[in-house]
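Ticket #4471: complex job returned nothing on first submit. Input attached below:
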Amino acid sequence: MSAEPLPLVFEGIPLGLLPGAGRGGSDPHAVFSLEVRAHETVVVLGDQTSGVDRLAALALGLDPAPAGRALVWDTAIAALSRVRQLAFRRRVGYLPAGDGLLQNLSLRDNIRLPLRFGSDFQPDDIEGRVNVILAQLRLKAVAHFRPAAATEEERRRAALGRALAFDPELVVLDQPFDGLAERVAAELLEVARGGEVGEGGRRTVFITGQDLPAMLRPRVERLIRLGAVPAGARA
Amino acid sequence: MLEFFAAIGRGTTRRFSALGGPARFAFEAVAALPSLPGAGRRVALRVLLNQLRFTALQAVPLVVLLSALLSFVVIQTTLQTFNGLNEFIGTVMVVTIVRLLGPLLTALAVIGRSGTAITAELATNTVMGEIRALEGMGIDPYHYLVLPRLAGSVLSVTILIVMFDVVSLSAGWLATSVNQASGGRYVTNVIAALDTSDIVLTVAKGILFGGVIGLLPCYHGLKVSRGPTEIPQAVTRGTVAAIASVFIITALLMFLFRA
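Support reply: We reran it on our side without changes. The output follows.
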């Protein structure tokens, strides 16, 4: 019986060679390896020059790895054809740094967009799902706002809602809590985990950032700080 | 001397290689069409309709104004310059407006209104990380952003060119009547001067002009990488490239079809 593929694996990624990394004293020869198991919430922290802000894009195949590889369920997304890359990414929830909401769409339409574009759900089903997400993230009252009219907290909530639109098993959050109050960050983390099962969260969650609010630390299974790990060591 | 020619060669090579980017972009955009998912077609159609509203519908007053003013200027200039040419105003209108100025001015108006807006919008999307977010969600920016704008631009420019010509020729009929020339003779001259190639060329210009006006601003908007300060430069590059392309296409079509 073959083992279930791991949701996310980084193998021998030389972080110092990533664009923007390797300056300011970080070790340019350090390689990063990590296995994220199902139902885990794993956080990788590092400063701006550590290359941590590139990990989410590497995982989703948005950037090619200079060496090594990033695997999602045993698949290197960057190696797939463009069409298959796009189809594969719909299985992963992604919250990019700075939210990445489309400015000409309301918060509701931003959450609705991936469902309307990438699924064959009926319009009523899509509306039902969007309404559940809006309620879960307490966005109903501001759902008609454009991102520019919403607060940073509301935008981040909407971006998380969009990442969870397909109810993915794996969620990749790039600097999701920057600038948020601890209480809000804790709430968003709970929504991202999707509730608890025996092995941990219902979803597997991979988070990158520069810092993690103290209130959240007991809620994550593993916390890795880049620079504190010896070069080449398994985190 | 050798160095002089080498410098010319380097510059020429650089300019021709700069054509590669837009050409590859155009190829990738068209190649992306078959992979547009079924559900995505409905969303893309809505974006297309929005683009048509902005590029075609909202441009109608400007195009009507430009075409009416142009026909007035052409007729007045003809009458003042060539005394006794009243009988040939219909022919002059077809030659100057339908064959040359109508498509050109329409294209310039659309570049000024929509080409600049497309570049600025897509450059802002890029800088704000929205394009990466779309790709991260599994939505192809070609499907959601580029193809609807390309199709909208082609349809809009074609429709607006035809409208420009119709309004100009109608305004010409009014102007000839005001100038005590024969309206009936004007209509006869216009019909006699028009031939099938005028219709073919008008449609061809609509498609080609619309194509470059849709593609080049998208290309330069999505090429932005460094930050917000690059947005005005992208708008300038997109606008200049679209204007230059429209004139080059006009010259090429004239060379091919009138030689």
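Chain B has nine helices and no strands. Closing as resolved unless it happens again.
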